[in-house]
Amino acid sequence: MNFAYPGLLYGLLLGLIPIIVYYLMRFRALRVPWGADYILERALARRRRKLYLDQIILLALRALVVMALVTAFARPQSRTAHGTETGGEVLRILLVDGSYSMLAGEGSQSRRDTAVEAMRGLVSSWTRGEQWSLYMLDSHPRWIVDRASVVNASQSLAILNALEYEECAVSIASGLEAVLAHEAGQSREIYIFTDDQATNWKGADSVIAEIDDNTRLFWINPTLEDHRNLAVTDLQLGHERVLRGYPFSVYAQVQNFSVESVRDADLTFLANGAMIGSERVSLPPGQNARVRMELRLDELGPQVITARLSRDALTVDNAMSAGVEVVDSVSLLVLRDAERTDKFETSAGFLGLIARVLAGGAGKEAQGPLRVTEHAEPGCDLSLLMAYDAVVLDGGRTLTPALAETLRQYVVENGGGLILAMDDTVDLPVWCQQLGPAQLLPALPVRVHNEPIAGDAFRRLSRSGFDLPGLRDLETDADGDITQLQFFTWVEFESPIPGTGVLARFSDGSPYAMQYRFDRGSVLVLAAGLSSRNNNLLVRETVYPFLVHLFVEAASSGQYTRRVGLHEPVRLLVKGDPPPIAVQFGLEGQEPVLATLTPHAQGTYVEYTAGADRSGPASLLVLRETSRERVWIGVQGERSDSDLTSIPADYRTRLTERFHLTEVASAKELSEALASSGQGVERYAWVLMAVLLFGMGEMLMGLRFV
Amino acid sequence: MAKPEECKLTLESVLPADTRDALRHLDLYARKKAEGLLHGAHKSRRKGVSTEFDHHKQYMPGDPIKHMDWKVSARHEHYFIKRYIEDTSLSVRLVVDSSASQKQTTGGVSTWLQTARLAASLAYLVLRQRDAVGMIMASTGQTVWLPTSSTQTQLVRILQALVNATPRDADALQVSLRALLERESRRGLVVIISDLMFDPDTVRLDMRKLQARGHEVILIQVRDPVVETFPFNRWMRFESLERAGVRYRVDTVPLKRFYLEEYREFMDGWKTWARKHDVHFITLRSDESVETALSEYLMLRAGRGGGS
User: Fold this and answer.
1) How many A-B residue pairs are in contact by the CB < 8 A criterion?
2) Which of A127, A218, A243, A518 lies 20 to 30 angstroms, CA to CA, from A249?
3) Which fold has domain A330-556?
4) CA–CA distance from A459 to each of A373, A485, A534, A700 (Å)?
5) Which of residues 126-185 of B touch A (CB under 8 A)?
6) Each residue's pLDDT tens digit, B41-96
7) What's the domain count of chain B?
8) For B254, which of A36, A41, A705 is closest by C-beta distance?
9) Which residue, among A401, A397, A414, A330, has the nearest Cα to A605 in the 3D structure?
10) The complex's ipTM?
11) Based on the domain organization, do B77 and B164 belong to the same domain?
12) Do A36 and B258 touch (CB under 8 A)?
């Protein structure tokens, strides 16, 4: 037996009131001189025992009436654990799965909705003074409510309504261990609000097996008919700074987390919410696919690219985003070797021609996507380099240690993009000596091959495995080699250091373009020069997009990444005047938070170290005195909670039958399960009936004397 | 309820003028043959000088010759003398219960006051018809004995005795009856006035003795309304009027029914006993009019034939 208001049981002492009144009235008896002693004595002598008994019965009935009334007000309820009347207080613990899988559902009703409905029904059935706790299983499992007394249902419901679900995997076993370690030895009812995800329940059976008889388990498992679940597990952009109107690649990885095959699921790509492409995906159970989409963006500025799948059981993992910066041009600074005096002896002249062609004619270079500047001085300082998106260092024999250090600072410390284009004039020992210690060479050049121009010994680029924009339209031979490009001079490298990406290869498999990315900044090493003196890059306009792609690749490394993981710090370098007065980090559905601003040589360094706690498009709103701009960041979680595969049938049977875990699917079933076990049934009606009976007894006793 | 100390009586309260007026036209006749010294209105158990013939008696030596009935003697061979019923005066003895229970007072009227009124009224009534009246009012260590007398000063003596008396002790009536049995042998009317709040066995035995001696006994009970109705519904502390220091602390709610049952049984016992032993049993409450009660009784008594 338990009571809704156990504190009222102190009122049982009120049962003493009739006894106190009895003695008070006896004490305050009215004095009267009496002459009829004879009759009074006879009446008393003959009925004294009966009178005494009647007094005791009356007093007992009156005390019982008061005590039964107090008991009724305390609202007695029957409580059981494992079907046994335990008596005393029962601590109710809600163990709530706060992972994203609880957001899976059908139609407008999610598992979370069903669980919350069951929680509301449960909490509403509790009454003032009952003890309850709530343990939230999410990325930071913790007690939300630790043995609190129910003051009123609305307060408890407010707590339930405020529960937020996180993108994380949970372990029921660890949650149960934490809960069972709490208030051990007391009668407990543990209500587990979670789904039947096999990943969640791993190892829980062994924990449940150790539960004592004073603890009863209820598992509220909202059913899900359709477990079909696809998730976008990764979204990568070819590079995070793209030229307006120029194609760039987007790679979306999709995984089928269900036990059924999925056919022709729609994968849609959106830029700032507007659809810019779509693809159909078919996947067998448990498999994943990498979908590549070539996109062009026509609007300048920061944008967010989103890959979104059609609706399925769990919608929160159906989309993934990444931020991208759309620019109208890439500025290149070509460092000229002082010993090379001819205009076309370096790549600057050739790149200038390409820029002119891309701009649409002579004199329009300022409006073109490629801005090429040549620097012929022996030395240069860092500030000069920082004014450009990328720096091209081609062949030549003079490379001073000072220049090498400046280049290191430019790349490693300031996020610059360095393009090392090794043509026939490169002095490999010097380059290795100067650039190697500065870690600007991801692969050491071994030898320079110089073949006669127009001869038969040349190299071609391969398209196999390198489906870069610009190379797609070029003719290939039967082996997949691009026939239109011929390199008569090239450099052989040793094996690149780990982390080096190969962007293009020659037809023999040796690397043509290798890129090594630092935290910010990158080195793009080309195995041939950009001057066209020893290749036909210049004469083939169809190759220009490929070259632009390489330049943009190098230039985009200068900015902080627009694609972060959960809880990963978000950084941004804001350039331009006036400097920002504040930057807010915002995630959809959450209040914006101010990011930290730090002055920097190139602008203002913005950082939000806490990062985002769930996947989706986030943004940094840069507030200046006269303007504002929003920089999009794609937050990409690990999809650790997307696998909705149910626990095996035998596992479920072991839980429910061997370990007496009561499984219900809804609030109604939970209510029925509780009612069938006699739990929570109010007994005060019986007590009121007892009050009535005692009262009637007292009245009848009183009537006897009339 | 008045305190017992307030039971002091006055002459005017015991026999008011309006009571005397109301009693003026009433007569009290003996139901049995009286044995008085004087001629009066009541039949005497002695045969003597009178105008009302009773029977003939064979002459015996010593009988007065003047009562010889010569005509009858002539018709028979023996002498006969005439016997007449002798009229004599009524001798009434008032036995007043002065026990402490008579202090029971309700509404300013104590049963003692009502008892005194009854005694005074009866004395007045008896003396007014020139009969003799006496009064016995005894208690332990104190006995008021007023021999029967028909003089008008007897009323004064009786009234003074009533006014000066203070109810006390528990067995006053028994003592009075015992004194009466010891001292008085002449037949007459014995009127016992009491609240009857005692063990009746002894009193009943004495009353039977009085009847055996030829007395007519009238028993008048004075009832107190509170004692009769027991109108209590709370805890009460009853302090005995007759026994100092004796008190009963009781919850009257459950007791009331039992008390009333007991009271009814007690009264029924007296009525049954009185009917069985030919004792006129009159009860009146202390707040009832004495003259009305006496009028009703005397009229009833006269209707039954007075002397029968």
Assistant:
1) 114
2) A518
3) Rossmann fold (3.40.50)
4) 29, 8, 11, 118
5) none
6) 555 555 555 556 667 888 878 777 888 888 888 888 888 888 766 555 678 899 99
7) 2
8) A705
9) A414
10) 0.80
11) no
12) no
